[in-house]
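Reagents: none. Just compute today. ATP-dependent RNA helicase.
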Amino acid sequence: MGQKKRARAVKGGGPEAAAAAAAAATAASDISSSTALKESLPQKQQQQQQQQQQQQEQQEEVTFKSLGLCRELCAAAAAAKWERPTQVQQQVIPLALQQLQRLQQQEQQQQQQQQQQQGCVEQHDIIAVASTGSGKTGAFVLPLLQYLLQRSSSSSRSSSSSSSSSSSSSSPFAVIMSPTRELALQVYDWVQALTAAAAAAAPSAAAAAAAAAALRCCCCCLVGGVDFSLQTLTLSRKPSVVVCTPGRLQDHLLRTKGFSVKGAK
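Predicted 3D structure written out:
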C-alpha cells in the first residue's frame, strides 16, 4: 500500500511539483522575452539612425534658393555664414514669402485700379517656437527684406510707384518688437548686416545702387538709453522697418507727432 501511494504522489505531482513547474515556465518566459528585447533593441537603434540620416540628407538638400529667396538674399545669408537653412527657417520662410506675395499682388491691383482697398488679403499668423541660436531672426527678416527689394524694383519700373505712396505714410511696413534692449539691438544689427550684404550682391552697379538706396534707411531701432530726439529724427525719414522695445515704442506713439503703426502690415 505504501509503495502504491508513493507512485500516485509521483504521478500526480502534488502542489509542490505544480509550483515548481509554474516557476520553471515563468523563468523560461522571462528568458525568451529578455532575448527578444535584446534582439529588438538593435533594430530600434538602426531605425533611429536611418531616420536621422534621412533627416540630415533632406536638410542638406534644402538651400535658401530652394526656399524661394532671391539671389541677393542668398548671398546675404552666405555672408552671414548661414550655410544651410535651419529647421525653423525651412518652415517659416516659405510661409512668410507666400503671404508677402499675396500682399504684393494686392498692391499691384491697387495701382491698376488707382484706389486703396484695405483688408482684401487673407492674412495668417505664423507662430514659430525654437531654441536660442536656431535662426529665428533670419526666418522672418529674410522674407521681409525680399519683399522690400521686390517692391523697390517694381516701383522703379512703374510710373506710379507704390513706394512713393508708402513713403508718404507715417506707418512703417513692419514692426519687430523685442522684449529687451539687448535683443532689439542684436536684431537691428542683423537687419543692417543682411541689407548691406544684399545690396552688395546685386548683379549690376545700377541694381546695387538701387538696392542700397531702397535699404539704406529701411530700418531704425527704438530702445531706451538713446537720445529721444535722434530717434524722432530717424522716424521722420519714414523707415520701412522699426525694431523696438515695447516701452520706447509706446513713448514714440504718445510723443512723436505723426508717428503711427496702424498701417503696418
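Residues 4-10, 159-168 have pLDDT under 50 and may be disordered.
Action item: order primers for follow-up constructs.
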